[in-house]
Specification:
Blueprint (H helix, E strand, L loop, with lengths): L2 E4 L23 E2 L2 E6 H12 L12 E5 L4 E2 H14 L2 E4 L6
Parallel strand pairs: 1-6
Antiparallel strand pairs: 2-5, 3-4
Length: 100
């Protein structure tokens, strides 16, 4: 069974976004992504702090993630890595009504 993970970005310019590549995020800002068996809430809180993006998670999802990158990543690259780790954990990120 696949769990659904709903991310919501609170930007007024996102009304037509269909995937992460269309989301208006600062593509010059970078962040570190290094988590070893970290609770998903810890990972999400780090992403919210670094990106100033609001994320909503289904409270039924409670798993640990391991995500590593040797270098700082641009925000869109970091989100793509995060989404890939969700898919490995059988969590499907969704874009709904123009929101991630």
């Amino acid at each position: 069974m696949r769990l659904c993970f709903l991310l919501i970005l609170l930007f007024s310019s996102l009304s037509q976004a269909q995937n992460i590549d269309e989301v208006k995020i600062d593509k010059t800002k970078t962040m570190y992504v290094n988590f070893s068996n970290a609770n998903i809430d810890t990972v999400i809180n780090h992403f919210m702090k670094e990106t100033k993006i609001t994320i909503i998670k289904d409270p039924k999802i409670n798993t640990n993630l391991s995500i590593f990158s040797p270098n700082k990543l641009k925000l869109d690259e970091a989100f793509n890595l995060l989404f890939a780790s969700f898919k490995l954990a059988k969590i499907e990120p969704s874009i709904v009504d123009g929101f991630i």
